[in-house]
């Protein structure tokens, strides 16, 4: 029964059981408390040491420069059908035998090397000094693998020379090097050399070597000479920068006054370098034949974006107009100098894949390239195309060997069994897999890298030997496809440090204008620079900040060059959620940018001259940023040549611009 004599009710619950062991219970609770305290202390200490990272120690910026965090690159190339060279070792693939050519590079302090085609000599480069992204100056030694003798590589009557380039040919001990912008040739490693060109001028006329524009923006290499397969001829470009305005590249060396280096830099609407293609005979006559551009390009500015030998005597050349919406593929007879049009491509927007080398049949009647192929409502994608002339007429026969809503990123090789080897993004735009496809119906396609079963490895590259039996170093590696920020390639960068050490979420986006997702997405920025891509970035960020683990009040943006231009536009946008931004070497005035860039997209020369449109980010735009943006930083790396410092002043207040 319940007794209600007190405000709080008490109930009769019957007799109480036996006395409990309160002392034992207390001791048990104390032990549990001590154990939980140790566990909590351990969690706090580990969290403090690892920056809150449950997977191990945090990645610091200095770690990126340590060997343990660098990608292993064996630097292997094919020197015969079954041999490759790898860090002064020769590997026989059929027998899996490794032979050391010599064991130490410290003896000569060499950082670059190349083995002669007959495998009797090694070319060693030392005292290497970088010029631009690909080019460098170096001194060279020729090392005899049998006698161990060493001799310096110098032009006639010159000692202790610094060369702009040196490399073996394709037969025996052929050797070519470039000194003072002229090409020199040796038939043997120990023979005297003779000069093939004489028009070279430092910083003005380049023979067999690229100037800044062709190295950085057109060919993406410093080499502009090509051996014929039998080594009897050498094709080379002559690039003349005499009419190109120069840019001053400041170099801050710690002295009171910074030093500067001038280099030709054609800007929007300014003169481009003139370029011509020549072929010289190496039989002793030094006969030079100039290969003329197509008639439609003779009176206009053009680029030469690709040169490759189709046979021992025929050379394939691709000519592209300055606006980059028309390209002509020619096949030139180097004995007569006559060039025949093999294929013409035009676009209402611009053309991509213009550095791609076509592969020809033995009789040159059939060749293979990648071309856009429509895939229903998905748009057009680049696929392997076989183009040939009908035997009874000049009618062109076009057949597509691959198809689908994915891109073929690179054609690698063609073997005697009529199979093609290529890299594609069939499994997704972030991946690259190695495939083989037959040129015979039904065009059977096989993925070769898919069967390797390497965990977390889906971005491959390959080098095919001449017998097509070996894939050298089929590994995940860094690649730089145009306009692609998101891929399965492995890399470590400053962003990796932000993620592991500073608890920052880093997001990348491939929106309109990015590559390997078809022509529709690639051309999505045509006439819409800084518009469509900004909309895509804002839409992606607005989706991300809705996630529960993202702090929408602390969102920043970082960009470099064109990305710096977008970073500023994102901060200026009225719908932007960004609170701070970093713009490294941003493009602030299209008039000041290199002539190759974006001219095909915006046709800025015509717009600027006819409509007098000024594509400039002014200081008033940045100073009067929308409310909520707390900080903006604009910077430019010292010695940056791709985006000159002249583009930064429009972002600076007038007093700083004057100083």
Automatic annotation (TrEMBL):
So where does this one cross the membrane?
Answer: 25-46
Q: Which GO terms describe its molecular function?
A: potassium channel regulator activity; serine-type peptidase activity
List the residue ranges of the region (Disordered).
Answer: 636-659
Residue limits of the Peptidase S9 prolyl oligopeptidase catalytic domain? Answer: 491-596
Q: Which residue intervals are annotated with compositional bias (Pro residues) in the record?
A: 650-659
Q: List each copy of the Dipeptidylpeptidase IV N-terminal domain by range.
A: 116-471
Q: Which Pfam families match?
A: DPPIV_N, Peptidase_S9
> What's the domain of life for this entry?
Eukaryota
Q: Which GO terms describe its biological process?
A: proteolysis; regulation of potassium ion transmembrane transport
Keywords attached to this Swiss-Prot or TrEMBL record, sorted alphabetically, are: Membrane, Transmembrane, Transmembrane helix
Glycoprotein is among the record's keywords:
no
- The molecule here is called Inactive dipeptidyl peptidase 10-like
**Origin organism lineage:** Eukaryota, Metazoa, Chordata, Craniata, Vertebrata
The gene name reads LOC107382734
């Amino acid at each position: 029964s319940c007794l209600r004599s007190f405000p709080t009710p008490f109930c009769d619950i019957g007799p109480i059981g036996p006395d409990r062991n309160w002392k034992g219970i207390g001791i048990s609770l104390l032990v549990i408390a001590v154990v939980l305290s140790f566990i909590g202390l351990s969690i706090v200490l580990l969290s403090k040491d690892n920056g809150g990272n449950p997977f191990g120690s945090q990645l610091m910026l200095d770690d990126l420069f340590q060997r343990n965090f660098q990608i292993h690159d064996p630097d292997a190339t094919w020197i015969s059908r079954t041999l490759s060279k790898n860090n002064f070792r020769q590997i026989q693939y059929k027998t899996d035998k490794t032979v050391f050519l010599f064991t130490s590079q410290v003896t000569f302090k060499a950082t670059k090397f190349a083995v002669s085609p007959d495998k009797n000599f090694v070319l060693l480069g030392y005292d290497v000094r970088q010029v631009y992204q690909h080019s460098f100056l170096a001194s060279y030694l020729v090392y005899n693998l049998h006698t161990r003798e060493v001799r310096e590589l110098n032009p006639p009557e010159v000692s202790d020379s610094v060369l702009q380039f040196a490399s073996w040919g394709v037969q025996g001990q052929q050797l070519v090097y470039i000194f003072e912008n002229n090409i020199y040739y040796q038939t043997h490693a120990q023979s005297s050399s003779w000069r093939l060109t004489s028009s070279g001028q430092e910083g003005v006329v380049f023979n067999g070597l690229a100037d800044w524009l062709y190295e950085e923006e057109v060919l993406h290499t410093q080499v502009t000479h090509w051996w014929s397969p039998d080594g009897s001829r050498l094709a080379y470009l002559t690039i003349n920068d005499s009419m190109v305005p120069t840019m001053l590249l400041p170099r801050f060396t710690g002295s009171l006054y910074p030093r500067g280096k001038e280099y030709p830099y054609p800007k929007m609407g300014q003169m481009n370098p003139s370029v011509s293609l020549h072929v010289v005979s190496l039989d002793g006559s030094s006969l030079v034949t100039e290969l003329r551009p197509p008639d439609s390009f003779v009176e206009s500015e053009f680029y030469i974006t690709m040169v490759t030998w189709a046979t021992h005597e025929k050379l394939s050349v691709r000519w592209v107009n300055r606006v980059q919406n028309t390209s002509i593929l020619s096949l030139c007879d180097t004995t007569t100098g006559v060039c025949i049009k093999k294929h013409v491509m035009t676009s209402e927007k611009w053309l991509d894949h213009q550095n791609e080398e076509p592969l020809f049949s033995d009789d040159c009647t059939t060749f293979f390239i990648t071309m856009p192929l429509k895939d229903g409502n998905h748009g057009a994608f680049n696929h392997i195309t076989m183009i040939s002339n009908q035997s009874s007429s000049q009618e062109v026969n076009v057949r597509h060997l691959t198809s689908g809503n994915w891109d073929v990123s690179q054609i690698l090789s063609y073997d005697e069994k009529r199979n093609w080897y290529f890299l594609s993004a069939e499994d997704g735009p972030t991946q690259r897999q190695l495939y083989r496809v037959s040129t015979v119906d039904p065009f059977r396609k096989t993925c070769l890298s898919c069967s390797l079963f390497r965990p977390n490895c889906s971005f491959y590259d390959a080098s095919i030997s001449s017998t097509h039996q070996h894939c050298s170093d089929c590994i995940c590696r860094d690649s730089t496809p145009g306009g692609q920020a998101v891929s399965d390639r492995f890399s470590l960068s400053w962003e990796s440090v932000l993620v592991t050490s500073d608890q920052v979420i880093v997001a990348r986006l491939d929106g309109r204008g990015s590559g390997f997702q078809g022509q529709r997405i690639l051309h999505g920025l045509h006439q819409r620079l800084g518009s469509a891509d900004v909309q895509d970035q804002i839409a992606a960020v607005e989706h991300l900040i809705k996630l529960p683990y993202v702090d929408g009040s602390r969102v920043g943006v970082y960009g470099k060059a064109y990305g710096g231009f977008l970073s500023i536009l994102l901060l200026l946008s009225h719908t932007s959620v960004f609170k701070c931004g970093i713009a490294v070497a941003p493009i602030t005035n299209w008039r000041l940018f290199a002539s190759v860039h974006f001219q095909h997209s915006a046709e800025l020369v015509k717009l600027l001259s006819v409509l007098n449109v000024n594509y400039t980010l002014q200081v008033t735009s940045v100073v009067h940023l929308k409310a909520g943006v707390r900080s903006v930083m604009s910077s430019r790396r010292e010695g940056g040549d791709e985006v000159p410092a002249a583009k930064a002043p429009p972002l600076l207040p007038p007093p700083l611009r004057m100083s």
